[in-house]
């Protein structure tokens, strides 16, 4: 939702308690927030007939309760029920509901680990890089890695590398991309590793480059891409601005330097989980 919402529905005297976590919900607004933020954990322990009774008896939403019960009876997946609640709440714009509908469709048939990966991917898409990295790290704990396919591990390491790179943590990003390539042998991970190594000073990445099975043709191709980025990429334009701002002879006024610095600070705060 991402906006301030005035609670207009009745507050329950007795909460709906989420099984396992014990989380208590008192309003329809809280229920929608929970469904949206924990979509990867939804199952029939959460969306069930007890929830239908709670909506009717505690919130006074009898019609929604009846409709939800029909959906739960006719569908094997719980996600149509979750989407129905969100639609009937009136809290979401049409485009938001469409996005949620597509997201929920993508969850069907996935394992819990695959569902949690989608959660990390959502953070990555929303440019919440620190939160994405934290989610991927939780998924890559030893007890979880043992239950994954090589392909899934590879995707997780690759996306963790992307999150680190977006936070300018290039040594960590390079290591993740290298590990991703070891798992999935995808050329995208190998090239991403090379990109990250380009930003690491000294020879920290030399030994890792040997393990990437690089040949002359690959190096030429990647170097060519670096040249394209250097001449056309917005990132390199920003780097040039930074270089000019640090140069006392650049001709940039102190006022404009302060504006540039304030803009960079603002953009960095936007990717912080605490902003």
Outline the structure in words.
It comes from Candidatus Eubacterium avistercoris. This is Tetratricopeptide repeat protein. InterPro entries: TPR-like_helical_dom_sf. The protein is mostly helical and 275 residues long. It folds into 3 domains: 1-109, no CATH class; 112-202, Alpha Horseshoe (Serine Threonine Protein Phosphatase 5, Tetratricopeptide repeat); 234-270. The chain is 66% helix and 1% strand. It has 15 helices and 2 strands. A two-stranded antiparallel ribbon has the order 1-2. Helix 2 (49-57) runs antiparallel to helix 3 (62-74). It is globular. The two termini are 17 Å apart. Mean pLDDT is 80; it is low at 1-6, 204-210 and 229-236.
Overall domain count: 3
Order of helices and strands: EEHHHHHHHHHHHHHHH
Major sheet: order of its strands?
1-2
Distance between the termini: 17 Å
Produce the secondary structure layout.
Blueprint: E1 16-17, E2 24-25, H1 28-37, H2 49-57, H3 62-74, H4 79-89, H5 94-107, H6 112-125, H7 129-139, H8 142-145, H9 150-166, H10 170-184, H11 187-197, H12 206-210, H13 216-232, H14 234-246, H15 254-270
Antiparallel strand pairs: 1-2
Helix pairs in contact: 1-4, 2-3, 3-4, 4-5, 6-7, 6-9, 7-9, 9-10, 10-11, 13-14
Organism: Candidatus Eubacterium avistercoris
Protein name: Tetratricopeptide repeat protein
Report a brief summary of the structure.
The protein has 275 residues and is an all-alpha fold. The longest helix has 17 residues.
